[in-house]
Amino acid sequence: MPQTHTPNFPGNDLGDQFRFWPKHNEKIYERLENKHAWLEEKRAAAQGDGEPATAQPPAEDPLENEMILNIGPQHPATHGVLRCVVKMDGETIEKSVLDIGYLHRGIEKLAEHKTYQEFMPYTDRMDYLSPYSNNVAWCLAVEKLADIEVPERAQWIRMIMSELARISSHCLWLGVGMMDAGAVSGFVWTFQEREEIYSIMDEVAGARFTVSHSRIGGVANDFSARAIEMIRDFVDTFPDRIAGWEGLLNKNRIWVERNKGVGRVTREEALELGLTGPNLRGSGVAYDVRRFEPYLKYDEVDFTIPVREAGDCLARYFLRLDEMKQSVRIIEQCLDRMTEGPIRSDDAKEAYPSKEEVYYSMEGMIHDFMYTDVGTVPPKGAHSYHAIESPKGELGFYLTSDGTGRPWRVRINAPSFTNLQAMEHMLEGEMVADTVVIIGSLDPVMGEADK
Amino acid sequence: MVWTALGAFLVINAMLLSASLLVFAERRVSAFIQNRPGPNRVGPLGLLQPFADVLKFVLKEDVQPAQSNKFIHSMAPVVMVVIAMTTAALIPFAEGVVVADLNVGVIMLLALTSISVYGVTLAGWSSNSKFSLLGGLRSAAQMVSYELSMGLAVISVVLIAGSLNFMEIVEHQNSGGALLGWNAVRNPIGCLIFIVTAFAETNRAPFDLPEAEEELVAGYHTEYSGMKFGMFFLAEYVNWFIASFFIVTLFFGGYLVPFEPQLIALFPALEGSTLLALLQFGSLMLKVGFFAFLFIWVRWTFPRFKYNQLMKVGWKYLLPISLANAILIALGVVLFGAVGL
Asked: Helix, strand, or coil here: B97?
């Protein structure tokens, strides 16, 4: 007789305190049921002429119109492992609860066991659509902490590459946005531009995707002549591509109808929910770190901050397209104004020595060894917060030093995480088909949100 | 009787083969739209790719969800394929070449397309999955709302031809000389409405809400695998191939060769010959090929409608327009008939 086999998951027999998942799941559904209960109580109290507020009995639902649907974490359109639990009436979403953390890798804790330079590749894997911005954000935070001067040419290089990363990230957002709305080919079209940016990254940094090109105190290596030529080519052709996409989408009735008025966030709500980056600017708040606290050389170039008032998905679409155009402008100016000079700090306590020094001099080799082993040592008790305008919004690192080569504590202010706060609010009252459009237009990257 | 059976056998096999060709065409054309080569490894030009796909379907495990209604779950794909194949019997391929020459062909077509909604709805319901259920419900709502406009567009054609027989509808389009006799010229609004509703009836983009990949994973066939999924796939392709046939038959002169009366006047020997039948078949396939291409073209370019927008388009725009069009055509038929045209 065949034995009935019950699967024995790890943790099944260890008593209740280790069974994280069932508890967690129950809590999610409980939160979904109880959501807005206080609001309904208040309404009932307001109607009941000051009588003591009592919880409204659950509304009768004899036809079983309501359904709880799990969208994600494994779902074609959730951009990674985002889980939305929604309660629907027909196709309309009544309540929604977000469950994040499926991609949590403990990056902040990992940083405590790495030297500042060693942590760089981890930042690539946070917002993996624009690794260069994360590199720059990390470097700037460490440089602020340890008070390191960065040569001018390195700053221009960082700026150019960050803006390319912004274009790359926005390209992916546009392609995925089109695909979410049903136009599958758009995804492939925008990936052609991303491919060009990948090639540039390859030429500059030697890696296509996770570049890790920035270094504490500068950048890894200078632009080659070919790299500059490639960037110039890209900058020259890219505006035409944007015009092509605008021609396809701006007056496309289906695209406009799918985006207009969907996922609306007013200016006040956007500020209260803590939106950042293009999502905040789409709601009419002209906040951009590049303008308000200029880092690198952003105070020396001429660019505008696009702002839209509507606060819906369509506004965010137009805004991101405008941002790409501004990025092109910034790159052009950077290329024109770039000066010759060193690309990394010359102090062996602040940055790696150049490869020639390492290979052909004894001191250089010792410095290289010491920097790999100990790294930059900021003063004890120093702490710094530095934020940049990453493609997703304000990306900041808060660092505390204990006087060793490793950070005592790292805290990451990830824009995707803060943007996801608005998600539940945006989903409620919309339709199921809008979920994917809203997720796309918020543009979260789970690697960054879950850290 | 024997000839009918033989004809049916031929048509079904031709449909299966052309479905595989369509799969290949769709993958190649979508690849060209997306600037990539597409399948080009299996066989010459990759022509054998669909057969490799089918082989994969057959070899795959057929997963039956534990909580599903087993009988209906298995029946739904069969319903889809059978209905799709049955519709093919009504197509006139050339003068006098048709499997079932019914005098109520149009009504038969409408009836069959109405049944095909059952396949989708039952598949969605019997899978016992929420995504499937949503897909099935969307499909039911969509097909019911678009069937009305489709019926009215067909009625406007029937009014002009004065017959429910497809062969007679085609022959009637031969009257106005070269291309002017086509119903697309005589009844352009009806033609547009029929094409739009044909997209909706076959669940093709931009009306592919029942299987919206980004929202509902795969819609009504989320829980299907192996050859059962293959049957849905087959039914979908056969469906829009046949939809293109009916677009051509009803509005673009069916099997008629352009300038056919003039051609026959030039070469009287052509009248009733096999060569003419072959020419007619060729002209039909060319026209159908264009519309099949249109289906692919639209699918890989446009975004998808939202559920409420779909309903709005169906009920608030298409239905009143098709109603007005039917009345307009009826008046036209009476007036022109009175003048003796």
From this structure: strand
* Long-range contacts of the stretch B258-264 (C-beta < 8 A, 24+): B258/B178, B258/B179, B258/B283, B259/B178, B259/B179, B260/B174, B261/B174, B261/B177, B262/B177, B262/B178
Cβ contact A168:A130 at 8 Å: yes
Strand partners, A411: A398
Query: A77, B214: Cβ pair inside 8 Å?
Result: yes
Asked whether A149 and A140 are in contact (CB, 8 A), the reply is no
Selected residues 100-159 of chain B with any CB under 8 Å from a CB in chain A = 130-131, 134, 138
- Is pTM, for the whole model, over 0.80? yes
Residue A102 burial by Cβ neighbours in a 10 Å radius (0-12, 13-18, 19+): middle
What residues of chain A lie within 8 A of the CB of B35, using their CB? 188-189, 192
What would the two tokens of residue B142 be?
């969509």
pLDDT in tens, A51-88: 544 445 555 666 666 788 888 787 767 677 888 888 88
Task: Please identify which residue in the block is written with the tokens 């939809």.
Answer: B243
* Structure tokens belonging to residue B248: 């051509």
Give yes or no for a contact between A227 and A204, defined as CB atoms under 8 angstroms apart: yes
For testing contact with chain B, the best of A254, A260, A437 (most B CBs within 10 A): A254
B242 DSSP 8-state letter: H
Q: What is the pLDDT of residues A193-216, one digit of tens each?
A: 888 999 999 999 888 888 888 888
Between B34, B303, B308, which is nearest A431 by CB? B308
Reported as a pLDDT band with limits 50, 70 and 90, residue A1 is: very low
